[in-house]
Structures are given as C-alpha cells and as structure tokens.
Specification:
2 domains; single chain; 11 strands; Quinone Oxidoreductase, Chain A, domain 1; three-stranded antiparallel β-sheet; six-stranded parallel β-sheet; ER; binds NADP nicotinamide-adenine-dinucleotide phosphate; alpha/beta
Length: 297
C-alpha cells in the first residue's frame, strides 16, 4: 500500500484542484504487486508463465484508477515488471516498488527524460558519498529506504521521526536521530548537504535553514512548497520528481534486495478482503515501513 491508494480512494481531494485527476468511481485501488505470471501477450519475450515478478503498475499513467493492484489477478506492461528478488517473499517484494523506486529516482537515477510535471527542469540526484543527509519522515515507506540508500552510498544520515521509531531507524543505519515530537530539527541542525523530506508539503521550507550553501532540498511531496525565494537567497537547490514505473530499475533493485543491502520493513499486513482495516491503520499515521495486503498466505 502507498499514500496514492488513499488519495485515489478519496478522489484526490487532498490535491489542489488543478492537480486532481478525474476519477470515475468505482475504482480498484493499488499500484504495487508481487506474484506469479499467469499468462503473457504474444509479443512478450522477457517473461514467461510461472515467473515470480514484482511491479509498480501504470504509475503515474494510471493514477486515476487504472493500476488495479488490490486484486488476485492484475495486468501490467512487461516494461514495468522485473523478476522478484528470489530471497525475498511476495509480501516484502510487493511492499517495495513505489517506495523504493521513489527513493531510487530521487537519490540515484531518475531513469527517464520525460518532462517533469513538478518543475520546469529535470530532477538531478546529488553526490552522497561523504555528505551529510537529513531524512525527514525516516521511518515511513519512502523514508526507511532513503536512509538505507544514503548509507549504502556512503552518506552520514540524520534521521527525523517520532521517538518510538528510534531503534527502528538506527537499525537501518541512521547515524543520528531527532525525535520531532520533542525537538524541531530545523532548530538544532545546520550545515547539511541534502535534506530528503519524506513528509513534504507546505512545511518543507523550514529545512532550508539546515542546509549549507550549495546544498539541496528534495521534498518527496513537493506540492505546497513556497520557499523558492528563500532557497535562491540561501543558494540551495530545491528539486523533486514524480515516481514512474520502471521494470529495469526494479531489476537492478532486485539485486540490492536479494543481497540484503536494502531491507523492506513491514509495519503490518492485512488480508486483501480486509483492505478497509488497512486503510484505517494508514489513517492513524506513524507507519514504520510498509503496510501490505496479502492475497494468499
Ligand atoms: N514524488 C513522488 O512521486 C512520491 C512517491 C511516493 C510518495 N510520495 C509522497 O511522499 C510522502 C511519504 O510517503 P510514504 O509512503 O513514505 O508515507 P508513510 O509511509 O505514511 O510515511 C510517512 C512517515 O512520516 C512520519 N511523519 C509524520 N509526520 C511527521 C513529521 N511532522 N515529521 C517527521 N516525520 C513525520 C511518519 O511516522 P512518525 O510520525 O512516527 O515518524 C511516517 O513514518 C507522501 O506524502 C507521499 O504522497 C511522493
């Protein structure tokens, strides 16, 4: 499960009107899947029935409800799927695609040169080795993977989350931890190279003061950000991108999941038939890792 599941359920009413896709209800929610191929179209060469695969299906092309992942059977373009990491079970593989592709496309490689709907220029990752990276929302679906990718690339990581998440994010490799319920990170941190704000929205601008000149702020949810002038004054780059389905990147990421470089944490799992309870859990927030729907145990 991912935040767009509840945004779609709600007709994207949380987005500004100009960003709201037109949704024809009823819809089947969901984008991320892991399962076994039942059949392939005649022109598909890379995959065959019986292959275990995972995917983020039709995102953002199908964000108005054409991905339909909360189901026993799903169709997906072959270009969006990859072989499931063999050492990872379906629940963990299904939990990976959107969050992990988001972390990868922000930090490592955007993976395409299509126009960026969020800004006039392409999103550019920045060097991580030897740099200090602050990750806000470090315990969440995207955040817990950003922490791991930044560590893998040799960064020093300051994780920001609620206090109950400290052991979890330190276990993922975070070097320092700030409990935002006790301390405002922007009041105590200065001179970092990169802030990855996995909460985002209108409050992202407060992180500008934590960055050194030449640093970068990546708001994962950039809508509502209004700090462009302050960023220019401080010599800070602000950049975002919209995650896109990408089977080739998932194939690369299979390797990192298989060898344990990147671990997917599951907060809780629910049977598909009780997706409602999973959405109620999501609404309570403070998710540590991912929520997963299981079709069959
Ligand atoms: N650009 C894109 O294409 C893209 C792709 C994927 C996701 N997103 C967006 O990125 C955001 C995060 O997605 P997600 O899947 O990671 O969501 P998530 O799993 O719900 O994670 C959000 C995390 O933020 C933490 N948090 C909440 N309030 C906070 C605060 N004030 N300060 C610091 N941490 C706080 C929560 O736990 P604690 O409060 O316990 O720390 C939670 O772990 C969503 O808005 C989503 O729409 C954008």
């Amino acid at each position: 499960m991912n935040p767009p599941d509840w945004y779609l359920r709600d007709g994207y009413r949380m987005l500004p009107p100009e960003w709201q896709p037109r949704v024809e209800f009823p819809v089947i929610l969901g984008t991320d899947v892991s399962g076994v191929i039942e059949d392939v179209a005649e022109d598909v060469t890379g995959f065959k029935p019986g292959d275990a695969v995972y995917a983020m299906v039709r995102f953002p092309t199908g964000l108005a409800g054409q991905s339909r992942a909360y189901a026993e059977y799903v169709t997906a373009p072959a270009s969006e799927i990859a072989l499931k990491p063999a050492r990872v079970d379906h629940a963990h593989a299904a939990a990976a695609p959107m969050s992990l592709l988001t972390a990868w496309q922000f930090l490592i490689d955007q993976g395409h040169d299509l126009p960026n709907p969020l800004q006039p220029h392409p999103h550019q990752p920045v060097p991580l080795e030897g740099r200090t990276v602050l990750v806000n929302g470090a315990a969440g679906g995207v955040g817990h993977l950003v922490v791991q990718l930044a560590k893998w690339k040799g960064a020093q990581v300051i994780a920001v989350a609620s206090g109950r998440q400290e052991a979890f994010v330190r276990g993922l490799g975070a070097d320092d931890f700030i409990d935002y319920t006790r301390v405002a990170p922007e009041a105590v941190v200065t001179g970092v190279d990169l802030v990855v704000d996995c909460v985002g929205g209108p409050t992202s601008g407060r992180f500008l003061q934590t960055l050194k000149r030449g640093g970068a702020l990546f708001p994962i949810f950039p809508l509502g950000f209004d700090g462009a002038e302050e960023a220019a004054r401080r010599g800070v780059t602000v950049s975002a991108t919209q995650v896109r389905s990408n089977g080739q990147q998932l194939a690369t990421l299979s390797g990192l999941l298989n060898d344990g470089t990147v671990r997917i944490a599951i907060d809780s799992r629910y049977p598909l038939s009780d997706a409602r309870a999973a959405h109620e859990r999501a609404a309570k927030g403070h998710i540590a890792g991912k929520l997963v729907l299981t079709v069959r145990e």
